[in-house]
């Protein structure tokens, strides 16, 4: 941990365990005794740490989103594949019972043809501990707190003076460090419809509407973002809504399901009924409720593999050769790419077609943003 004060409780809890600020020094000293690494740093440092660890032959678990750019997600996937390493992204409810039940029900045609998908999250909430409410003022430089390695925290990001506006929890407020609320929650909530419907990478991403942040480089206060996917010979649209308390639009939902102030969720609208997943998609419900009761006893029996215990046990079991990690990089890289393309659209306020093979969009602004930080950024 780069901050002695942030890690103080853990240092006290495990007094005999050596601790480090720099993961490289840790692996230089202890690497022979390390099989796997769990990376729970801010988004902008996931890639550089994971690539170094995998280059040393270590299995890696990386919190969501697995990286900060499309290129980074692919590089991490490719290295894990070539090194034959176990990988896992921390979208903890992937392959949960709720997720797999939804997929089984969809495959059985329970809700009929799929019409559209809506996903939402009420955040950012400007008064919360996770958002730097700057009131339109740039972060004010301050002396670096004792025990914090600010340069190491910045990692591959462009240098700037330390400000308490960035730490400890508010770094996601800035595009240079995070990917907005979509990057924070998309790999959870969008995972449900993408997995259940078997969607690939999007063909197009639309910046439908947003309320910009108060300063340059700050994430938007609210967004409506839409993806277009190839689906069963046609196009399926998925729309994301966020920032309700900041003037953002709430999801329209459907005749069968009315939004009732849920903080987050995903709704697959069908011709005969709807499937609803909460923000962490551990359960799945059919609406209208009367229809769910009517067909309850005829729902298909569970047959798809579920996650083994929790996602951490699943990761360890995969390392021991018992199974394949549920959210390994072959699964989580395209999911994260889809999420980050939406964040890219929000950041640049552009809509674009996506050429996945060439890894380029139809928007010069989006392409510039993807490459403007070298191998970082979006």
Characterise this structure.
- By secondary structure, the protein is of the alpha+beta class.
- The chain has helices spanning 8-13, 23-30, 46-55, 70-82, 97-107, 150-154, 180-189, 191-197, 289-295, 311-319, 329-348, 364-371, and strands at 36-39, 59-62, 87-89, 114-121, 204-211, 222-231, 234-242, 264-270, 274-278, 285-287, 352-355, 360-361.
- The protein is built from 12 helices and 12 strands.
- A 9-stranded mixed beta sheet has the order 10-9-8-4-7-6-5-11-12. A 3-stranded parallel beta sheet has the order 1-2-3, with helices on both faces.
- Helix 3 links the parallel strand 1 (36-39) and strand 2.
- It is globular and about 60 Å long.
- The chain starts with 7 loop residues before the first helix and ends in a 7-residue tail after the last helix.
- The mean pLDDT is 94.
Task: Tell me the number of helical segments per DSSP (H or I, 4 or more residues long).
Answer: 12
* Estimated helix fraction: 25-40%
Mean pLDDT: 94
**Estimated radius of gyration:** 21 Å
Distance between the termini: 25 Å
Question: Spans with pLDDT under 50 lasting ≥5 residues?
Answer: none
Order of strands in the sheet with the most strands? 10-9-8-4-7-6-5-11-12
Query: Would you count the extended β strands for me?
Result: 12
Beta fraction: 15-25%
Instruction: Specify the biggest β-sheet.
Output: 9 strands, mixed
Anisotropy-based shape: globular
SSE string, helices as H and strands as E: HHEHEHEHEHHHEEEEEEHHHEEH
Alpha-beta content class: alpha+beta
């Amino acid at each position: 941990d780069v901050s002695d004060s942030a890690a103080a409780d853990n240092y006290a809890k495990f007094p005999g365990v050596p601790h480090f600020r720099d993961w490289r020094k840790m692996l230089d000293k202890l690497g022979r005794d390390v099989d796997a690494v769990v990376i729970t740093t801010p988004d902008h440092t996931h890639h550089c740490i994971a690539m170094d660890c995998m280059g040393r032959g270590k299995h890696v678990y990386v919190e969501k989103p697995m990286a900060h750019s499309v290129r980074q997600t692919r590089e991490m996937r490719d290295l894990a594949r070539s090194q034959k390493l176990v990988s896992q992204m921390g979208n903890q409810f992937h392959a949960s019972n709720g997720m797999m039940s939804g997929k089984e029900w969809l495959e059985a045609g329970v809700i009929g043809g799929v019409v559209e998908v809506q996903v939402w999250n009420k955040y950012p909430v400007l008064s919360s501990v996770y958002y730097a409410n700057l009131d339109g003022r740039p972060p004010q430089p301050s002396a670096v707190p004792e025990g914090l390695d600010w340069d190491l925290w910045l990692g591959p990001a462009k240098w700037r003076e330390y400000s308490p506006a960035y730490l400890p929890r508010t770094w996601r407020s800035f595009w240079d460090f995070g990917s907005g609320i979509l990057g924070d929650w998309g790999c959870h909530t969008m995972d449900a419809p993408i997995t259940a419907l078997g969607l690939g990478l999007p063909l197009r991403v639309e910046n439908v509407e947003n309320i910009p942040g108060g300063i340059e480089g700050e994430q938007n206060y609210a967004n409506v973002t839409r993806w277009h996917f190839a689906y069963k010979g046609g196009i399926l649209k998925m729309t994301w809504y966020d920032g309700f308390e900041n003037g953002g639009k709430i999801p329209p939902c459907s005749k069968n399901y009315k939004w009732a102030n849920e903080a987050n969720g995903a709704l697959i609208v069908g011709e005969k009924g709807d499937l609803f997943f909460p923000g962490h998609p551990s359960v799945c419900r059919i609406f209208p409720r009367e229809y769910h009761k009517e067909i309850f006893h005829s729902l298909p029996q569970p047959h798809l593999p579920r996650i083994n215990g929790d996602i951490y046990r699943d990761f360890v079991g995969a390392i021991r050769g018992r199974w394949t990690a549920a959210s390994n990089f072959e699964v989580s890289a395209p999911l994260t790419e889809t999420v980050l393309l939406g964040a890219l659209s929000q950041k640049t306020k552009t809509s674009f077609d996506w050429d996945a093979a060439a890894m380029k969009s139809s928007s010069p602004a989006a392409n510039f943003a993807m490459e403007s930080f070298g191998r970082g950024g979006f």
